[in-house]
Amino acid sequence: MNEPIDSPDDLWRSVTLLHVWLEADQPYGGQEGLLLRMLKLQEEVGEVAQAVIGVTGQNPRKGTTHTWDDVQAELCDVVITALVALRTLTPDAREVFAAHLAGVTERSLGSRRG
Hints:
By secondary structure, the protein is mainly α. The protein contains four helices and no strands. The mean pLDDT is 92.
């Protein structure tokens, strides 16, 4: 049984392992491979939209086809895909992400009026 990810180190270890696994068997490399990795994000976001449509029954031909658990899983796939894409772009993905998250947090929460 797989153990849950308990720390940022475990998260980034998994991202690195997924990156290595993907890089080992790619039909396209270089800039083309990088661009295709970025496009994978759009596919995953589309699957979130499909799950939301499915959970709300917005397609009358299909009815209710998904659950909120499906939406959660698809959102997780988006996050994983984005982190692996970032790791593909830079070996310093962890540091780049941490700095960006700190900036967004400061910008967002630092602007609150008390």
